[in-house]
Amino acid sequence: MAIANPVKFIQEVRAEIAKVVWPTRREVVMTTIMVFIMAALTAVFFSLVDLLIRTGLQGVLSYFGS
Q1: Structural domain count of the chain
Q2: pTM of the complete model
Q3: Which of 65 and 55 is assigned the larger pLDDT?
Q4: Is residue 48 a part of any domain in this protein?
Q5: With contact defined as beta carbons under 8 Å apart, do 29 and 37 qualify?
Q6: Is 4 among the domain residues?
Q7: Range of the domain at 48
Q8: How far is residue 36's CA from residue 24's CA, in Å, rounded to a whole number?
């Protein structure tokens, strides 16, 4: 196993970081808003599915139960 040169490692890390295309503030804000919207839509969807399953199960149990 080769011994890594710390100076060379730092230079390579800096070179790779220089290649990164950082998002603009507007892109970050828009992406964050979209994440919150999708999380809210998912929560509503699963709440409705839960309500539907619960109502159906209660109906079946009350039909066969006493």
Answers
A1: 1
A2: 0.66
A3: 55
A4: yes
A5: no
A6: no
A7: 19-64
A8: 19
